[in-house]
Amino acid sequence: MKLSKYKWSLAALLLSLATPSFAQSWFTPEVEKRAEEILKNMTVKERLTYIGGVDWMYTRAIPRLDVPAIKMSDGPQGVGTWGPSTAYPCALLLAATWNPDMAYAYGAALAQDCKARGVNILLGPAVNIIRAPYSGRNFEYMGEDPLLAANTSTDYIKGLQANGVMGVIKHFAANFQEYDRNYVSSNIDERTLHEIYFPAFKSAVQNAEVGAVMSSYNLLNGTWTTENPWLLKEVLREQWGFNGLVMSDWGSTHNCIPAVKNGLDLEMAGNEIENEEDLRKYLATGEIEMSEIDLKVKHILQTMIGFGFFDREQLDPSIPLDNPETAQTALEIAREGIVLLKNESDILPLNPATVKRIAVIGNNATIYAAGGGSGLVRPFHYVSYFDGLKTLAAEQGIEVNLVDLYDHMEDVLYAAPGSSEHGLTGQYYNNEKLEGTPVATRVDPRIGFEWTAGTDLTEVNKNYFSVKWTGEIRPIETGDYTIIVKGDDGYRLMLNGATVIDEFQAGSTRESRYTMHFEAGKSYAIQLDYFQQGGGACIDLAWLKAGDEDRFREELDKADVIVAFIGHNSSSEAEAGDRSFGLPQDVKDLVLAAQKSSKPMIGVVNAGGNVEMQEWEPGMKGLVWGWYGGQEAGTAMAEVLFGLCNPSGKLPVTFEKRWEDNPCYNSYYDNGTKQVNFTEGVMMGYRGYDKAGTEVQYPFGFGLSYTTFELSDMQIAESADDDHLLEVSCTLKNTGSRAGAQVVQLYVGKNGSSPVERPIRELKNYRKVYLEPDEEQTITLYLTKDAFSYYDVNRKNFVVDNGDYNIELGFSSRDIKLKGQAQIQVESAIVPVESHTETGNLIPSVVKQGEKIRLAQGCASELNIYDLTGQMLMKQIDQCTIDTSYLKKGAYLALYKVDERMHTGKFIVE
Fold it and tell me: What is the pTM of this model?
C-alpha cells in the first residue's frame, strides 16, 4: 500500500531554539514560586549544604523553613534499605512479561511498601540497555530493545508515582558494564545514543513525568556523567524539558567545579566533593557563582514540593510491612515473566500420570536466588524452588527428593575434640581480620551459606565481618576425598594445622579443591576462615569421595524426571563486577555429571540474561528461564512446571550461541586505555545478529507456550487518527487446548536505500493477548512517524526516512508470521530561519489549557502553531493572542509575522 501524509517540519527552527518538549504536570507556576520563596529565605550555608545528601539516604532538613528531610531507599526490585520487605522479581523478568499492566502493578505495589516505611523516593527503575550478558547488574535492567525498555519503565514509574512515591530513572547514561565502572568511558556516537540508549530515559521524562534522574558511574565520551553538560543540560533539560532533580549515584561525583556548573543538583550520599569549604573557596575566586548553586537548590525544592512531600506525612502505618497484597503482586509478576525455551516431547507440563518421583538438584534449589548489590532485597520469607515444587507435588501424590553430588560432611564434622555434637564451632567477628573478641559463637551443623543481606545473627555486621570455624573431621569410610571450598570474598582452609587452601583475599565467588587420603577411625583438625566485605556472601564446604559420582547417578536413576535448579545468584552475579558468561564451574560440573543419568532432565536457570550453554543444553529435555523471581519464585515456577500456569514470558534479550557472536564482542572491554568504543553503533542486540545473519540460541521475543497460536488476516491501512500514520491489524487465534497468552510483535524495516544504515527490522509495537482455547481476537497496532524515523545528527532531531518499508508481524524477531509493505511519504516543508527572524515574547509562556497568550510585539498578520515534531496544528491571520482551548497538554512553537518581521516563541500548555 502507499501512504502519504502531509506534515510540516520545523527541523531547522526547532534546532535553533532548543525548545523543551514536555511540561511535567507536577511542575506548576505555583510550585516554582513556592520553591523560589523558600530559596530566597535560605542562608548561604543552608544553600551550600542542601545540595548534598545526609545520613546515607536522606536530603537535609531545614526546620526553621519547614523543609523536611526526604527519605530514600534502594530499589528497583524492592524497598531494600530499611529492613525486610517484599522482594519482587527482577526488572529483567518484568520486561519478559511484555505486559504494561504488570509494569504498572509493579510500581504501584512498590509504592505501598515505600509508604509503609515512610520512604518518599525509590531509587528505580534502572533502564540501561543490555549490550552483553556480562554486566553484574543486567538483572536490574529491562532488556536490549529501547522500545520495550521505555514502555516497561514508563509504566513502572506511572504506577509508583500515581501512588505518591517519586521514581528515579537510572543510570544516565550508558553504564553498560560493572567492571571498572568508575573509570571507563563509554564512547558512543550521537545517533546510537538517541536511538538505543536514550529512549527509556526520554520516555520516563516526557511520558511518565519522572521526578528524578540519577547519573551513572562511568564517563560518557570522555566526561563523567555527573559533570557532562551536553548530557545533563542540553539533552535532559533543554531538549527533553526536564524540571526535576538530577542526583549522583553514591560516590560517583568526582570534581566540584564541573559538577556545580554542568547540571548535577544533588550529590549523594553526602557533600564529599561539593562540600561547603570548597564551595565557599570557589565562590570567592569566582570559579563558580551563587546563581549556579541556587539553581540546583531550586531544582531539588521544586521537585519535593511538586510531589507534595512538604505537605503530607509519607508514613502510612495502616499498610503492613509484610504485606500479603504486595506479595501477591510479586507472585503474579513472577508467573508472567517465566520463559519456556525448550520442551522436547512435551515433557512439560509434568504429568502426574507418568511422573511419580522427581529428583531435584542444583545450587539454587533451596536458597533465595537473587542478584546481588544495592538492588538486593531481603524478604520476610521466601519460597524456594524445592519447597514450591514439593508442595504442589505432594498434592498430586508425587515424591520429590533433593539429591546432591557433594557431601556437605554433616555426619563427619564435630564441634571440638572429644565432642559428640555434629558441626563446626563458628566464631563471628565484626571485622574482616578475625581480630579481637568474637561477637557471637555457635555450632553450625553445615557450612553451606548463601547470605543475601548479612547473617541471621543480629550481633554480626551486615557487611565487613569474618568467621572462624573449628572442629574435627572423623571419617566414616577410608578413602581419597576431594575437599571443595567455594566462597566470596576470602577463605582459607587448614587441616591438622597446615594451610591447604589459601584464598584469603577479596574477590568474586570462586571454588578451590584439595585432595588427600583420610582413614576411618582417625580425627583430623579442621579450621575454615572466612571474611566478607559487602553485598551477598557465600561460603560452602563439602567433599567428594572417589566413586561418589556413580552413587549420585544411581540416586538420579530412581526418579522419573530430574529437575535442575541452576544458575547464578547473589554470590556470582552482582553490582560492582561482571559475571562469567558460563555457569559457575561447579554448577556446570554438577549438570554434566547428572546428565550421565538415564532419566530426562529439565533445567530451570537463574541469570540476568544469557549464559553459555553449548555443552549442557542438548542434554536438557526442557529448559525454563526463571531470571530472578523474587520471594515467590518457588510457587510461580512450580505452577508453571505442573501446568497450573501456562508460561507466557518472552525474551527481552537475544541469547547468543557463543560470546564471539555478540555484535560487541570486539569492543566490550577497553584495551587498557579505559576507553570503550561502541563500534557496533545501532546494530546491537537482535539488530546486529540480523545484520550479520548469525544463528542465535534463542531469539529476541521468543518464548514457548503449552498451547498454540495462529496469526492471520493482516491488514495495513492509513490511520484515521492524526497521531498515527499506520494501523496494522490481524487476527490472533488460540489453536490449542489450553488457555494462554501470546505477544504479537510488530517489526518495521526499511526496504531500500537510506541516508544512514538501518536495521533489517526493529520492534515498533506489540501487544500481549490472553485467549481461551479456540478463541480469536482482532488486534490493531498503531505506528507513528517515529517508527519510520532515524536520528539525524546534522539536524539534531529525528527525521522520517521516506520510502518503502517491510511491515512484519510475528512471535519473535526470527519467527515472522505475516508480512506486508507500506510506502511512507511524509512531505516536509522546512521553514527557514532567516537572519531577520527574531525570538518572540509570549506572555505568559506557561498556561493552563484554555487560557490565552498575548503576543508582546503586537497583533500578527500571520500566526502558525506547531508541535515539536514539526506538525502544523493551527494557521490563523490577524491575531493578537493565541487561544489554547484546542491544544493538548504539551510544548508548542509559534511562528508569526508582525510588521513584516518574523518572530518565533515557545510556550507550554499544562
Answer: 0.88
